[in-house]
Amino acid sequence: MSLDGKVAIVTGSGRGLGLAYAQELARQGASVVVNDVDAQAAADAAATIRGLGGSAVTVVAPVGPTETAKELVGTAVESFGRLDILVTNAGVLRDSVLWKMSDDDFDTVINVHLRGTFTTVREAVRHMRAVGEGGRIICIGSPTGQRGNFGQTNYAAAKAGIVGMVRTWALELKRAGITANAVIPVAATAMTASIPYFATAVAAEAKGDPVPAFFRHDLGFGTSGDTAGLIAFLGSDAARAVTGQVIGVGGDRLQIWTHPEAALTAYREGGWTYDALVEAWPAEFAEAMQSVGESFPELPEELESAAS
Q1: Which domains are seen in the chain, by residue range?
Q2: Would you call 182 helix, strand, or coil by DSSP?
């Protein structure tokens, strides 16, 4: 069930999570197209893959434009003769509260995350369907897209949109033998490095020390490498029956997220009028309301000092 002979594209793979994905795919036998907007980061990433004994080429271009999608797929086919796996990981952040977020803040994040995922997957799927040998689409989501997060209107919208597209693609691509799944990674990254709550874990990862068990087990928070095994698995023949899923991974934890379902269903003959809702809401509906955002347990006493 190795990835020998497979070819993968990983967008945004010059560093961080994307680099970990590319390296693991190569470690399992796949040839990799590394993509980043930073030419040096892309070159360095490809060099590490070759250092592992793997094969890698680079495409230095921002995702979003259809031209980049065509270049990525074309490079895979021209360099390695085929395309089997696409991991859409590239992303940017432009965090701001709603009333301060500019049009450019919103458009930039939506263009890279949402449009970039759409254009790249569309081009890859066109090729995969024409060849007729199936394929694997793996799109990177976020807990923010699942639960929301203060100051991330643009990012939450993009990541929630990616999950919606994946569920649709799983239906549309089934007959072609192409799977589509979303991965929700949680790891020490540049984004989490600025959050005091994770300071101890991020510092440990940066020094190469073990991430404390509280983070790895209780929070499912570990290193970028902890998330990469799932990417390789979803890209393999062992996952041929896994599609339309949203799977969380981090530290020692793996989660399959539910698809949205009604938390409560109630009926009233004649429909729910304003007066009926005013009367019924406190007793019938209030307790079923859903929480928003993520909540974390208190840090153990021995980890509090690093977070303060």
Answers
A1: 7-187+223-256 (3.40.50.720)
A2: strand
Four-CA torsion 199, 205, 209, 213, nearest 10 degrees: 60
Report how far apart the first and last C-alpha atoms of the chain are (Å, whole number).
46
Give the span between the Cα atoms of 168 and 183, in whole angstroms.
15
3-state secondary structure 227-287: HHHHHHHHCCHHHCCCCCCEEEEECCEEEECCCCCCCCCCCCCCCCCHHHHHHHHHHHHHH
Which residues does residue 259 pair with via DSSP β-bridges, in sequence order?
none
Could you report the per-residue pLDDT of 102-116, keeping only the tens digit for each?
999 999 999 999 999
Give Cα 242 to chain centroid, integer Å.
16
d(CA 45, CA 33): 10
3-state secondary structure of 57: strand
The gap from C-alpha 273 to its chain's centroid, in whole angstroms, comes to: 41
Dihedral sign, CA of 79, 82, 87, 93? positive
Q: What pLDDT band is residue 306 in, cutting at 50, 70 and 90? A: low
Residue 215 φ/ψ, nearest 5 degrees: -70, -45
Single out the catalytic residue among 21, 155, 267, 274: 155
Q: How far is CA 87 from CA 84, 117, 168, 292, in A?
A: 10, 9, 17, 28
Q: Residue 155 catalytic?
A: yes
Per residue in 189-229, pLDDT tens?
877 777 788 888 888 888 888 999 999 999 999 999 999 99
Distant-in-sequence, close-in-space partners of 32: CB < 8 Å, separation ≥ 6: 7, 8, 9, 10, 13, 22, 25, 26, 46, 49, 54, 55, 56, 57
pTM (whole model) above 0.90: yes
Q: Coil, helix or strand for 28?
A: coil
Q: Which residues of 54-64 are buried (b: 16+ CB within 10 A; e: fewer)?
A: bbbbbbbbbbb
Q: Number of C-alpha atoms within 13 angstroms, CB side, residue 306? A: 16
